[in-house]
Amino acid sequence: MRTLSSVHDEYEFLETDDRYRLLIDLGRALDPMPDALKTDATLVRGCSASVWVYPTRLEDGRLHFLADSNAAITKGIIALVLLTVQDRAPADILATDIASALAPFDLGNQLSSNRTQGIPNMIALIRETARRYA
């Protein structure tokens, strides 16, 4: 499984177009999300593209998120967000500063504001989910 650090090491050395390709590849690598889970309840509000995030609880209490988007780069962004929290305990997720973990990617300057405007909402949904399970 890729780590946020290993993805950043690769991302840092890429030109803009290749960074887009890396994000798209990250999105493609996400576990498939069944269409039945893409509902209003799992939709992330405030994103220019449609983004769905659905939590599942593993046997030991850790959270595993399924996610999808109808836009390839946005799907890559949610994949990047999930690298910071995937398969971790709710308390660990709550203790993680996801925005700071993503800061080295400088997404605000790398991508259009349309693509990044929903990131805080993605993070808020994940944190709220962790709070419910904690």
Q: Which labels suit this protein?
A:
134 residues, Sufe protein. Chain: A
Element layout with pairings:
Elements lengths: L3 H9 L3 H13 L22 E7 L5 E7 L2 H12 L6 H6 L2 H5 L4 H4 L2 H4 L2 H15 L1
Antiparallel strand pairs: 1-2
Helix pairs in contact: 2-3
Descriptive overview:
The structure is a single chain. This protein is mainly alpha-helical and 134 residues long. The protein has one domain: Sufe protein. Chain: A (Alpha-Beta Complex). 51% of the residues lie in helices and 10% in strands. Strands 1-2 form a two-stranded antiparallel ribbon. It starts with a helix and ends with a helix.
Summarize the structure.
The protein has about 130 residues and is mainly alpha-helical.
On the 0-100 scale, what is the average pLDDT? 93
DSSP E strands, number:
2
Low-confidence stretches: none
Count of discrete alpha- or pi-helical segments spanning 4 or more residues:
8
CATH topology call = Sufe protein. Chain: A
> Per CATH, which architecture?
Alpha-Beta Complex
Q: What's the story with the biggest beta sheet?
A: 2 strands, antiparallel
SSE pattern: HHEEHHHHHH
Strands side by side in the biggest sheet: 1-2
| Overall outline | globular
Structural class: mainly alpha
Can you tell me the CATH class?
Answer: Alpha Beta
Strand composition percent: 5-15%
Radius of gyration, CA atoms, in whole angstroms: 14 Å
Number of domains: 1
Taking the alpha carbons of the first and last residues, their distance comes to: 25 Å
The helix content is: 40-55%
